[in-house]
Amino acid sequence: MGFEKFDETGRGRGRPAGTSPKISLRKSGSVGVNQAALEEYFEDDDGAILYFDEEEDRIGIEPVGDNDADEAAYTVSKTDSGGTIAGQAFLETYELLPEITTQYVPEWDDDNGLVTVDLDDPAKTYGSADGDETE
Predict the structure, then answer these.
(1) Phi and psi of 35, rounded to 5°?
(2) What pLDDT does 4 receive?
(3) Residues 99, 130, 80, 8: is their CA dihedral positive or negative?
(4) Strand ranges across the sheet with 58-64
(5) Spans in the chain with pLDDT lower than 70
(6) How much is the pTM?
(7) How many helices (H) and strands (E) does the chain have?
(8) Element at 76 (helix H, strand E)
(9) Cα 78-80-81 angle, rounded to 5 deg
(10) Secondary structure class of 89 (helix, strand, coil)
């Protein structure tokens, strides 16, 4: 028997089409937005303003038209597999830069008009911390 082609990969990097929205805080200093989250929250917006709620330990992301919409807005760089917000200064200022890339399930906050991420409820982590040695 020969090779069988697997053709049910869905969109972007082979992830299934039914993938739920996810936001990642990357150890590289950026905020990752998967394709499902881009489609749900940023379909018509190419910018984002970042917020931090220290009391609730949450990040808020306000989708805006583009980075000219507000002096605090970042560009949401989009590809066919997701998006990136280059928010290293934000993550460093609030000491949120993770040692390991950490993924969260976002929720829409109607009261504040923000995509929110509960930092106390990570969904998954990727990779290892810098400096980890394996013997």
Answers:
(1) -60, -40
(2) 81
(3) negative
(4) 107-109, 114-118, 58-64, 47-53, 74-79, 82-85, 31-34, 23-25, 101-104, 124-126
(5) 7-18, 130-135
(6) 0.82
(7) 2, 10
(8) strand 74-79
(9) 90
(10) helix
